[in-house]
Amino acid sequence: MMILAIFMATLLIVMFLEYRGIVWHNSLFANKYEVKGLDVSHYQSEVDWSKVTRGHQYQFAYIKATEGSDHIDDYFEKNWTSAKENGLLVGAYHFFTSQSTGEQQARNFIKIVPKEEESLPPVIDIEIDTNKDVQLMRKEIKDMSNLLESHYGKKPILYVTYATYNQYVGDGFSDHEIWIRDVIKPPKLKDQRRWTFWQYNNRGHIAGIDAYVDINVFNGTLEEFNRKFKVGG
């Protein structure tokens, strides 16, 4: 009985710490990757990027810029500027919706996000419901992707859940790199496709950010990351 009581007490402590974002089980699997980064939006409110970067744990930050055809994230400009000033490689992401065309959404993004050679490729965040017209959604995503690539000279990365990957992306975007969300276990796409970024933690607890924050890894070494995204030249 004593052993069982100790086990249950330990389990409760671990569950509490994970709930608070102090520990995260997926970190056991993510720790082998050399390159880590954050993605942030207005949900994190004010971010003190000098504190975020103090321990040199993170190499990049993806920052929400836009959503749909007209929404602009209130903290985008400040996050973009401050994260760069504190040494992070930055990129911007757009939250895709089914309420407007891909062209309209691309124009919204282009209006806000600077065209900078040293930034990461734009990201289209696809978390729409899976009950939409598949062919229509693929068309709108492709239209947006083509416009962003034409403007920025970089093919967008697609952020997906397993549901949106299987429904909209897996069969139609073989030339795009994938950023997969899996906060439970190491990611595995059904077609064995290689992923580029993995969001492994959605309850990160780090200095400089008062709210929970998403933490990600790059699928490769630091040298490969720098070469791929032309860091330092």
TrEMBL record:
- Keyword flag Transcription: no
Does this entry carry the keyword Hydrolase? yes
Please give the family membership noted in the entry: Belongs to the glycosyl hydrolase 25 family.
The protein's name: Glycoside hydrolase
The UniProt keywords, alphabetically, are:
Glycosidase, Hydrolase
Q: Which domain of life is it from?
A: Bacteria
Q: Which GO terms describe its molecular function?
A: lysozyme activity
| Pfam families for this protein | Glyco_hydro_25
BP GO annotations: carbohydrate catabolic process; cell wall macromolecule catabolic process; peptidoglycan catabolic process
